[in-house]
Design a protein that fits this description.
Elements lengths: L9 E6 L5 E7 L7 E6 L10 H8 L3 E5 L20 H19 L4 E7 L1 H12 L7 E4 L12 H18 L2 E2 H4 L4 E2 L1 H13 L11 H7 L3 E7 L7 H9 L5 E7 L19 H21 L5
Parallel strand pairs: 3-4, 3-5, 5-6, 6-9, 9-10
Antiparallel strand pairs: 1-2, 2-4, 7-8
Length: 299
């Protein structure tokens, strides 16, 4: 990691309605920020690993709140046979609590929702549930896990069948051991695998028609694809963006040249995130200018 990884965030402790506890990491720019990004990590990645990205955005005047997934990092819970959850808890308990804390911490700032990999998918699902809570969505190295949209689709499809079976047998998905995500709850593994097998989003315990809600979503969306990202190939991102026909989409490709020679893959960009931050901050600023022009009184 580069030097900006050492930045000390403001830590906001959160207590969920079901007793779960977690820390929200907030990175503050100089002065009062006009914009704030609520950032959702990839599956199994602790929030602290996005501090370099948060610092790079803060250097450009954009505040950042880093969400911590249930069961990861500072979370008081760990997935196991007697401790389980799925997208339902992530979308209807944890994210509303974190978003509320962010708004209370920066009441004057316009909120944006961003995410990496699975975080990007869940950002879209959350936005479809509560579109009034954010000005737009940012996706980095994200895309739908639908097995037919990958070069080695049969292997991805097999993983989507195996993951929930393995999680049911062991009480959780041992992501650390198998090299995929963190130690994930059975419910998260099942919800993720369902979208991978069927190409459609649904969550156990939620009657929500996500496909209908995503199709109706109208807001700005920036999608940054990493050129060499086999976990988020173009076809996977296109499948996800296809669910959002009314979003005001901007789709950009990030190459190794943009990252100072670092591989443009699923995770390496996190070590040198400045180019990603430049694009995000520039896109937000452009929308800020457009909104200001729309609300400027006629001469």
């Amino acid at each position: 990691m580069n030097a900006i990884a050492t930045i000390e965030p403001v830590v906001l402790p959160l207590a969920m309605v079901d007793g779960a506890r977690v820390e929200l990491l907030c990175v503050v720019p100089d002065g009062k920020p006009r914009e704030v990004v609520y950032w959702l990590p990839a599956m199994g990645v602790p929030a602290k690993h996005y501090l370099p990205l948060a610092a790079a955005l803060a250097a450009r005047g954009v505040a950042v709140a880093l969400h911590e997934w249930r069961g990861i990092g500072s979370s008081s819970l760990r997935a196991g046979r007697h401790c389980n959850w799925g997208y339902h808890e992530l979308l209807e308990i944890d994210l509303p609590a974190g978003m509320a804390a962010m708004r209370a911490h920066w009441p004057q700032a316009r909120p944006w929702l961003g995410g990496h990999s699975l975080g990007g998918q869940l950002a879209c699902l959350y936005a479809s549930l509560r579109p009034a809570e954010m000005a737009g969505i940012v996706l980095v190295a994200s895309g739908a896990p639908y097995w037919r949209r990958f070069r080695h689709g049969a292997l991805v499809g097999f993983a989507c069948v195996l993951a929930p079976v393995l999680a049911a047998l062991l009480g959780h998905l041992p992501g650390r051991r198998i090299g995929f995500g963190g130690n994930e709850a059975r419910g998260v593994a099942a919800d993720w695998a369902r979208s991978g097998r069927r190409g459609r989003y649904a969550a156990a315990g939620m009657a929500t028609d996500f496909e209908h809600r995503l199709a109706a979503l109208e807001m700005p969306l920036l999608a940054l694809r990493l050129r060499d990202d086999w976990l988020g190939p173009a076809a996977s991102l296109d499948w996800l963006l296809g669910k959002l026909p009314h979003a005001l989409r901007r789709h950009e490709l990030v190459t190794p040249d943009d990252l100072g020679g670092q591989p443009a893959d699923h995770f390496s960009w996190m070590k040198t995130p400045d180019a990603i931050a430049v694009r995000i901050a520039g896109w937000i600023a452009a929308h800020d200018t457009a909104l200001a022009a729309m609300h400027r009184p006629d001469p």
